[in-house]
Amino acid sequence: MKTRKILIVDDEPIARDNLAHILKKDGYVPLLAENGEQALDILRQEEVDLVLTDLRMKGLDGMAVLSEAKNLWPSTEVVVITGYASVDTAVAAMRQGAYHYVSKPFKIEELRAIVEKALEKNLLRKEIHALRERVYSQTGTSRIIGQSPKIQALRETINQVAQLDCNVVIQGETGTGKELVARTIHDLSPRSEKRFVAFNCGAFTEELITSELFGHERGAFTGANKIKKGLLEMAERSTVFFDEIGELPLSMQVKLLRVLQERTLLRVGGTEEIPIDIRVVAATNKDLRKEAEEGAFRTDLFYRLDVLTINVPSLSERREDIPLLANHFLSKHSRPERVAPRLSLEAAQRLMSYEYPGNIRELENIVQRILIHCDGEVVEPHHLMDDLHTSSAVVVRDTRQNWPSLNEHEKRYILEVLDEVEGNKSSAAKILGIDRVSLWRKIKRYGLEDPDA
User: Fold this and answer.
1) Is 208 exposed, middle or buried (0-12, 13-18, 19+ CB in 10 A)?
2) Region 21-47: what's the mean pLDDT?
């Protein structure tokens, strides 16, 4: 069995070193951080089995370390140590996922027992996760819910593409489940033992994209006190998912193209090429070929990425799957102590007759609101009124041949949502299922009036 890694976070050198000495004698590998910022740098680069963190520190405190550790590595256990014990802080720590809360001064044997129990729980979590992954990998496409011909064809395509280890472009409207398709490809591929790495190209500025993807060397810029590996380097022998690849700035497209061509990368401020082995899966709601022809996307990068294309159908193209999806979301979002309600025939028909500009993501939001109104065992049509009878987002199907383009449809939908929330971009982005930066770019692209102006 591999040696267990324990991250010790404490701004008092004596306390930090004493604890490291004890744990090292017990056969563990201690990693030391003198503040919360250093701890997060370590956690972003490698997984540890246990974090022992002081509560009160300058800058990021122990609660911030706890939160980010559980976010980055859900299986990692965290023990919070403090000389300022109180019931409120203990409860807050446990609610955020801490394994235990220890008051100073503590007895060494007591802490040793807590460490041992926490590591046992960590190992059990990993074994359960590995078992689930093994079962899941055998039937990975079962997560893609539906029995329509388009979904059955999509499952077959995923099973074939997963084994080919080539770059893939996943194309589909916003909210159709492109990331789920990407994760399923990874889980069924030979790279599945490595962690799936996802990056949203529309959520960062160009400077942040460079730092996040490529990392940096120590001293590369002010505040770069140590080497930081980028996401591409951390994804060695794994799959990198680029969401909203069409939003990637042209200058960054050049850098990504070089990585795909040379299979090497250069950290910011670095001089040594680092070889990497990654598979790229990119998703877009745009027509990348058209974007390339118009100069909005690099043609050479498009052909590097577009070895295989998977088209994910919109919800309106697979209406017969809507009741299955809705019942799945009813079960997913119902309270644990409650039996999930089921759709009545009339409610199912009403859901199937609705146009979903936001696709599956919008259906899931509608189901969550249904659960607020419905406290019985059956969802009836009147439980849907707020969403399907009076919603301004409903788009009535038309028999005319002059259909609006997808961009016109998206523009209209964004305008209606912005109007509904009185121009609040944060609220609009949440409803649309995108981040605020992506919404700002869409407002700029469509020439919409900025509500904040």
Assistant:
1) exposed
2) 91
